[in-house]
Design goal:
Layout lengths: L10 E3 L12 E6 L31 E6 L6 H15 L4 E6 L5 H14 L3 E4 L4 H13 L4 E4 L11 E4 L2 H18 L7 E5 L5 H16 L6 E4 L4 H14 L5 E4 L2 H14 L5 E6 L2 H8 L5 E4 L4 H13 L15 E3 L4 E2 L4 H4 L7
Parallel strand pairs: 3-4, 3-5, 5-6, 6-7, 7-13, 8-9, 8-10, 10-11, 11-12
Antiparallel strand pairs: 1-2, 2-4, 12-14
């Protein structure tokens, strides 16, 4: 993440200045007005796509970005919003209007409509339901407001200028590939492999499971025991308890989500079971601490910084800038982030990304 140096103090503006229609309240507005005037004579990093390396971080035209996301009822989702706010605060030329988090698609539609009416310069949205928000996002695009779609895709490519996604299938591949590595390195004969999934009806869960199965297939292995939870601590404990009762011996367990992993780990502790290699998913602070303490083998990162990346790209789009690190400098239409493996060897490198469950 970009860390500003020698930048003036930023402050969080009060939210009372903006109230959404239909009760959709703006609960935070981040403004980054400098305490002192910028040095005269600099070009401020403006001027299209011919930016030298690093020039995009220089202050440019002041822009207002609207951000709307789901209710932060999950540690990962809370981290998403926090990272978006922090990224906006790192730029003195960005004012961020943060809508109240909601899982009500109709309320989120109203929030986007308000951003359109306010004529913000760009919108970053993590939809509660990508299909239901496609139409209003398309209206924003038609109004000339670039939309950055985060994590849950719209139904039409016309609904956003760019889309930033975590790699759910890649998470499964990373976890499965590591499971194969553990089997080989520890010479495990006829391994018993278990999987604790998230909500089975969600495409993201299906993608993670498919990636896991495909990776295991490459080393001739399959999942022997599978249960599904609901991304909550309580459901994780219940699902893991059922799994342990059904399987008296397990060699490897992959749990899709580190938030539900708090309950999963509690079930392990309650049963006094630790004979298996425990692999997690998402990259919570709890998981990283367990890895450091030797209570967990690894976790697979699902970056909570997606919305922060969205803020950064929305700023570039609103200022008509490109990506100076690319030969083709225009902001890409689609970005899929990596799903790296976090182990004891590299956990310190990723610890700053760990979110509290």
């Amino acid at each position: 993440m970009f860390t500003p140096t020698n930048r003036p103090h930023r402050r969080l503006l009060a939210s009372a200045a903006a109230v959404f229609a239909a009760g959709a309240l703006v609960v935070g507005c981040t403004s980054n007005e400098p305490e002192e005037e910028a040095n005269a004579g600099g070009d401020g990093g403006e001027g299209g796509n011919a930016e030298p390396a690093g020039g995009n971080n220089e202050p440019g035209e002041e822009v207002t970005i609207g951000f709307s996301g789901p209710e932060a009822d999950h540690g990962w989702l809370a981290a998403v919003t926090d990272s978006a706010v922090a990224e906006a605060e790192s730029f003195e030329d960005v004012t961020l209007q943060v809508a109240e988090g909601t899982n009500d698609a109709n309320l989120q539609i109203s929030q986007i409509e308000t951003f359109i009416n306010q004529e913000v310069d760009a919108i970053v949205v993590l939809p509660s339901d990508g299909a239901q928000l496609t139409e209003v996002a398309t209206r924003a695009m038609d109004a000339g407001i670039p939309v950055v779609n985060v994590d849950r895709e719209f139904s039409s490519p016309d609904a956003s200028r760019t889309t930033i996604l975590g790699d759910n299938y890649g998470m499964g591949v990373t976890a499965g590939t590591y499971a194969c590595q553990l089997i080989e390195e520890n010479d495990i004969q006829d391994p018993v492999i278990a999987e604790i999934a998230g909500i089975d009806s969600l495409p993201l869960t299906q993608d993670r499971t498919q990636g896991f199965n495909d990776a295991l297939d490459k080393c001739g292995q399959t999942v022997d025991n599978r249960v599904a939870a609901e991304f909550t601590v309580e459901s994780g404990e219940a699902a893991a308890s059922n799994l342990l009762q059904a399987a008296p011996q397990i060699d490897i367990i992959w749990n899709h989500d580190d938030d539900q992993g708090v309950g999963v780990k509690q079930a392990f502790d309650n049963a006094g079971r630790d004979e298996f290699f425990f692999i997690g998913g998402a990259g919570s602070a709890n998981a990283m601490r367990w890895i450091k303490n030797g209570e967990m083998e690894a976790t697979v990162l699902y970056p909570p910084t997606q919305a922060a990346d969205g803020i950064r790209l929305a700023r570039l789009l609103a200022q008509d800038k490109g990506m100076s690190d690319l030969v083709q400098e225009d902001v890409p239409r689609r970005i899929v982030l990596d799903a790296p493996l976090v182990t004891a060897e590299n956990v310190d490198q990723y610890m700053h990304l760990g979110f509290e469950s």
